Fold:
Amino acid sequence: MQVIIGLGNPGEKYQLTRHNAGFWYADALVEAHGGRFKTEKKFKAEVAAINVAGHKVWVVKPQTFMNCSGQSVLPFAHFYRIPASEILVAYDELDIPAGTAKLKKTGGHGGHNGLRDIMPGLGPDFRRLRIGIGHPGHKSKVTPWVLGKPSLDDQVVIERCIDKCVKETENLVKGDWDRAMKNIHTP
Structure:
């Protein structure tokens, strides 16, 4: 894993919303490894370089808003010639209960607009860290749900889940996908 992309929406207005679970993971990962984000205008992103298990890893937070994430991810991947298979994208997932996460090797966008914008240029072969935020129950409630703040109980379990994912990032970077998957998927 050379690059970890955390998806979210920039700005204080969105900072604490469910849609920013990918940013929360990226922030926690960089903090855990003593890194700092710097604004990279040419990539429309905040970027940090950290050392994980003896490997240099780029952590990228697109600043283009969720639905335009490809405008940041694609130029970064192309500039550094990073194949999709060495990119992990972390994002919020409605279809997974809050406090759980799932790893996935490839696939479609599943209706997630951030992935939908990345896939035309990157293809389907990037890795995914799906951070559960739960579902509001009806599709008409999805937009206010993802752009809303989680309850205190949900926030606590999401943060615990992100901490677990940060710890397992070392296994991901070392290529031990199966071990990371087992540990992340086990409650």
About this structure: The first strand starts at residue 3 and ends at 6. Residues 152-174 form the longest helix (23 residues). The radius of gyration is 15 Å. Residues 124 and 181 are 19 Å apart (CA to CA).
